[in-house]
Amino acid sequence: MSLMSLPHDEAAGVPDTPAMLRQTAEELARAAAALIQQALEKRVIAGASGTSLIEKAPGDWSSELDAAIEKHLRQLVTLRHPGHGFFGEEGHEQPFNPMAVSGNNRRAVEDSAIVWVVDPIDGSANFLRGYPHYSISIAAVQAGEPVAGCILDPIRHECFAAAKGGGAQCNDQAMLISRTTDLMRALAGTVFPKPSAPFMDQYLRELGLAMRACGGVRRSGSMALEMAYLAAGRLDVFWERGMGAWDAAVGVLLIQEAGGEVWTLDGLPWWQSQALAAAAPGVRQAWEGLLA
Per DSSP, which regions of the chain are E strands? Predict the structure, then answer.
């Protein structure tokens, strides 16, 4: 039975095992992808039909579609898991805190129930310009740790998914982190800061170091996909400054389940930090030293 048609009384009994949560995450992501496809078919994109654009900050854009998808996903989560919390990029008013109120039920969240952390379109600027590289990121977080989730690329039809303790897969095929041991042979992924970022000078210093020390540096415009690619062995190292919890939640789980390592550059928990790094084990020490 599809998520869209699941009755409330049956939905309330869905177990919160990582495997079941992963299944829900995949169903939510496909529901979001269907809305994106409908919008594309109606040409509801920038410059095509007057869709209202939202400038959240210089260089940080979203649209009415982002908000509509997030609202739809919140309704689906409430239907299937009425005791769970929900935190989305477009609708939040406070920074994400998995141990505080961020969802549908104050008591449930405080009791370490599941909180769904959602980015309806990661890479909104790409989407709005017709640049075919963006994704949907949906994670189930419990007690501050992602336990299940998926990143869906609706362009390439790739679903990167994981459940805690069950490994990471792309379209149900196991993913493993790369075996690279030489940073000069490593391919790095990153996300550029917004133009007004106060840490721009620091980031540009790091970018220069990475360009000199690594075999190559890539920037696609979707942090979720960059982290998924590291988990799949397509990248070897990654770093970013200025992220939100919705950017990192699934990627953290994917990389860990695929055998990689993730850490924050400021020592804060991943959901509180805005500076994240990750690497294949063979280049972790060299990469961490470069960014220090």
Answer: 53-57, 60-63, 85-88, 115-122, 135-142, 145-153, 158-163, 168-170, 173-174, 187-190, 216-219, 237-241, 261-264, 275-279
Question: How far apart are the C-alpha atoms of 90 and 63, rounded to whole Å?
Answer: 10
Final residue of a structural domain among 174, 198, 229: 174
Is the model's pLDDT at 31 over the cut of 70? yes
| Residue 123 backbone class (left: φ over 0; alpha: ψ -120 to 50; beta: rest) | left
Domain with 277, as residue range(s), is: 183-291
Both 27 and 164 in a single domain? yes
pLDDT digits (tens, 9 = 90+) for 145-194: 999 999 999 999 999 999 999 999 999 999 999 999 999 999 999 999 99
Whether residue 114 sits in one domain with residue 55: yes
CATH number of 243's domain? 3.40.190.80
Report the C-alpha gap between 279 and 276 in whole angstroms.
11
What is the rounded distance in angstroms from the CA atom of residue 200 to the CA atom of residue 239?
14
184-232 pLDDT, tens per residue?
Answer: 999 999 999 999 999 999 999 999 999 999 999 999 999 999 999 999 9
- What six digits make up the tokens of 157? 């039809």
| Residues 147 and 263 both lie in one domain | no
Both 38 and 169 in one domain: the answer is yes
Residues 53 and 150 in one domain: yes
Does this model's pTM top 0.90? My answer is no
The answer to whether the beta carbons of residues 237 and 214 sit under 8 Å apart is yes
> Do residue 162 and residue 187 come from a single domain?
no
The two beta strands, 168-170 and 173-174, are antiparallel
Same domain? 259 vs 164: no
Three-class DSSP category at 234: coil
